[in-house]
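Quick one: structure for this chain?
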Amino acid sequence: MSVIKNETAVQKILESNGAMFKVTFIKRTDGSVRVMNARTGVTKFTTKEGMSYDPIKKNLVPVFDMDLFNEEVSQITAHGQRREDKIAEIGPRCYRMVNLEAIVELKIAGDVFVVEGDVHEYMFEWKGNGGVAMSKVVTGRNEGEAKVKFKREVGLNRMPTRCTISDRGVSVQRPVGELPLPFWRTK
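Got it. Here's what it folds into:
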């Protein structure tokens, strides 16, 4: 097992040329940890038109979730015969995005890599009910991770309007091999 920087992990994923890899990362939507066996470059179930945006500019990479595909295919297999019409329906649902900013671990070509990362403190300042100035310090590896944690801790569904966020710098270095902060666990 080797320790690598996030940029190196991203490069390894982008250069995988369709080879399978296992990636552990933190989802942007809810802050949960996702472990996925995936491949890049799968085009079988696409329309060949491409996406309406560039996922790399949003620090995302599209992948094909092999575990989900195999699970769905095994459910429709009848008496050992594959139903190609059903597989054509399942395939498009198996595309996912990997958050390139929050990769925790990567296994590719038989090598396991743990991604190092510093934990930053972010100051959130906003106006509460009645115009009262409020602030809260939240930790996270990046601003996106801190926003998810902030919304969960404050009990909000979305970010407050006119909320300013400032990075106060590195507060702790995450120990190698440890998942970044257990904020994704729900009660």
